[in-house]
Amino acid sequence: MGTFAVKVTVLNSLDPSKSATVECLVDTGAAYSQLPSDTLDSLGITHFDERPCIFADGRRSMCRVGRAEFTYDSRQTPALVIFGESDAPALLGAMTLSAGIAGSPEHASAARELLRAADVALFAAKQAGRNRVVTADTLPSAPSPPAAG
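RESULT FIELD:
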């Protein structure tokens, strides 16, 4: 997991004329984005649900959740956003993906062998720094994943 800051434009998807530019800490370990409630309220964004959340410091809380549009680098996408306290940091949640890929018959013909090849490729992707995709044919000598237990 890592963090860095970016400036994004946050819009009300029901009224795009209501927007604000916000500097957000991008958190690759956060499932949701978070903005102070007063920012979301000023944009006319309302919550549609309350969900249990676990914060990075271990706190647990029920949080109001709404929808907002986020624009960065000319790309706009909808996202779920937590209504944070007035002094809460602006966070942009970001998911990352590591994947191991194996195909039949190139990497194995039996299902168990194919699953093993994909598992080894996934382990290599995570060892390479996470947020990577590794195919079984790119492995010179397959590292072994940790033993289950």
